[in-house]
Amino acid sequence: MKKLFVALLMVLTVLSLSVFANGSTEAPAAQPAAAPAATKPAAPAPVKSITLKLSEVHAEGYPTSLADHEFARLVEAKTNGRVKIEVYTGGTLYAQETGSIEALQAGDLAFCRVSASPVASYVPAINAIQLPYLYKNSAHEWAVLDGAIGQKMLADIEASGSGLMGLCYYDSGCRSFYLTKAVHTVADMKGLKIRMQNNQMMVDMVTALGATGVTGIGPNDVYSAITQKVIDGAENNWPTYQNMGDYEAAKFYILDGHTRVPEILLGSVAALKKVSAEDLAIIKQCAKDTEEFEKTKWAEKEKQSEKIVREKGTTVIELTPEVLADFQSRMAPLYTKYGKGYEDIIKQIQDIGKKY
């Protein structure tokens, strides 16, 4: 009996040691559920952008071309990339400004930089600000353009129903004749064939001086038209005369300064319907913000171009006050014809000139 009790005690001891050696037989306590992984913020939706095109007939580096690029830069920055503008210089999209204007009207192009002259076909009042021998100097011109008269004409472009939108003015200095022969008097103009912009008033101007105005020749084709004797010359500012190389074909630059015709940056009403009202307002403001930029670049280029063509042997002819007065007197019929209905505007412009 004693032996049996000892045996049972030994068995129990072995079992107890086995339990302690293998750990508790209780089920492990439930562990708290792991916290769900933090949700990553959704990536911002990509900015939807629209790309618009701008046509420029002048070459890279020309003051208006530089302003075009500045306009594109500002628009993309101010719209946070929603609106991008591709600038095509050197007439690579449209060789003539009239072609650019037609593309704007069709909505095939968003912007173009053109002379004010062809725009007068849609807003005749513009002829009043580009009448020959109207301004005393550049300061006089810009006082008009930046004032009530000029700003109303920009607004009138859109109101004309032409499908065009006037955004801002750019400087283009004053225009003078450049020819293959010397001109010292009005009589010397007789019979000359001179390339003119596609504007009837400009054609009538040279007719009044005894010459013949030739239209339909783009700025990039003037040089070849002169060398092929299709025309005897053209008229434009110092930078265009130099930049296009026309000074090599027409060696005489006649400083009559007959007109100060501003450039206009135009927009397409149809094409710009693709942008929001907010972005359209930004586009319009960016255009105005480039005006001073272009004027500064223009002044620099004008001095540089005059220096170059003089050094290359161009004969620069300065008309005497008496001869210049004779040129001016021949314009009376144009003031009557193209100033009709705008006599008040012309008088306001002349009154502003009294300050200069």
Short description:
With 356 residues, the protein is α/β, with parallel strands linked by helices.
Describe the structure.
With 356 residues, this protein is α/β, with parallel strands linked by helices. The chain has one domain: 3-Layer(aba) Sandwich (D-Maltodextrin-Binding Protein, domain 2), CATH 3.40.190.170. The strands form 3 sheets. A 5-stranded mixed sheet has the order 2-1-3-10-4, sandwiched between helices. It has a 4-stranded mixed sheet with strand order 8-5-9-11. Strands 6-7 form a two-stranded parallel ribbon. Helix 7 links the parallel strand 6 and strand 7. Helix 2 runs antiparallel to helix 10 and helix 2 runs antiparallel to helix 11. It is globular.
Characterize the overall form.
globular
Count of DSSP-assigned helices: 14
Annotation, overall tally of beta strands: 11
The biggest beta sheet reads: 5 strands, mixed
Provide the fold topology:
Elements: H1 2-22, E1 50-55, H2 63-78, E2 83-88, H3 97-106, E3 111-115, H4 116-119, H5 138-145, H6 148-159, E4 164-170, E5 175-179, E6 193-195, H7 200-208, E7 212-214, H8 222-227, E8 233-236, H9 238-243, E9 252-259, E10 263-268, H10 277-289, H11 291-311, E11 315-318, H12 321-329, H13 332-338, H14 343-353
Parallel strand pairs: 1-2, 1-3, 6-7, 9-11
Antiparallel strand pairs: 3-10, 4-10, 5-8, 5-9
Helix pairs in contact: 2-10, 2-11
